[in-house]
Recover the amino acids of this structure.
């Protein structure tokens, strides 16, 4: 485990989606580091990015370009960066990601091939057990997110060498750093894991409680009332998830980032909680 104090100043949390209308569902929280705390400054949809739209293709392209341009930033994205090592034919994570789009030509084929190779069992990665993530990367509720995240975001970014994906790649000073996070795992760690997605005052009150619970850690703060309303009024919980992602990413930056090319997570990925 190695730390990089003062090397990143902007933190982004991305609540990802592989849905057809991904531009509407993906939320991005931007925070800046002030006095060893993360101050949330913005929370917006991917469709608001330059050159983006509501559809999946344009929004993921815009997200990919946006990440590559933020060279002094660190991003936390909430989709699996890999699959269990036993299912991977390639000898390294980089080769797995770069060949992903030719190995699996559709989300359905990805799920089918993984399910066949595992004998119908939804296997998890080493990090999924450690971080207590809820699903296997090719679970019915997650496989599209995994597929489009790797194919349309990580793959192109890795191919063009515009980011460093930790812990599989060594962090370099002239590129954005990208981490895998899981809001559900972070909420479990903070004892804030209860139902908060949906309409109605009870669900909104749950989102308020979660946001306040995160702020009580004295790691994250949000001073603007309008921004606070944007976060807790989003019924789907996606805006809040992006803030949780930023929180987990900043905490990982503060406590030390893992890099060990010989560990199991160097080929499967690691969830920073």
């Amino acid at each position: 485990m190695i730390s990089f104090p003062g090397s990143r100043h902007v933190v982004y949390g991305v609540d990802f989606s592989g849905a057809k209308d991904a531009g509407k569902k993906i939320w991005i929280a931007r925070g800046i580091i002030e006095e060893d705390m993360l101050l949330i400054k913005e929370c917006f949809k991917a469709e608001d990015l330059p050159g983006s739209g509501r559809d999946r293709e344009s929004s993921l392209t815009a997200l990919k370009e946006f990440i590559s341009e933020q060279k002094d930033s660190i991003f936390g994205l909430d989709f699996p960066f890999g699959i269990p090592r036993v299912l991977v034919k390639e000898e390294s994570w980089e080769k797995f990601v770069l060949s992903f789009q030719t190995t699996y030509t559709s989300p359905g084929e990805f799920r089918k091939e993984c399910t066949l190779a595992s004998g119908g069992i939804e296997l998890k990665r080493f990090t999924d057990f450690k971080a207590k993530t809820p699903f296997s990367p090719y679970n019915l509720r997650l496989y599209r997110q995994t597929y489009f995240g790797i194919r349309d975001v990580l793959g192109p970014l890795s191919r063009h060498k515009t980011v460093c994906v930790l812990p599989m790649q060594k962090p370099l000073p002239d590129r954005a750093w990208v981490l895998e996070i899981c809001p559900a795992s972070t909420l479990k760690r903070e004892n804030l894991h209860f139902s908060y997605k949906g309409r109605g005052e009870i669900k909104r009150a749950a989102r308020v409680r979660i946001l306040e619970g995160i702020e009580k850690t004295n790691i994250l703060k949000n001073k603007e009332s309008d921004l606070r309303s944007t976060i807790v009024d989003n019924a789907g919980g996606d805006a809040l998830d992006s803030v949780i992602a930023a929180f987990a990413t900043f905490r990982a930056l503060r406590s030390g980032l893992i890099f060990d090319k010989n560990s199991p997570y160097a080929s499967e990925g690691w969830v920073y909680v």
About this structure: The chain is about 40% helix and 15% strand. The first helix runs from residue 22 to 25. The chain has one domain: 10-272. The CA atoms of residues 49 and 62 lie 6 Å apart.
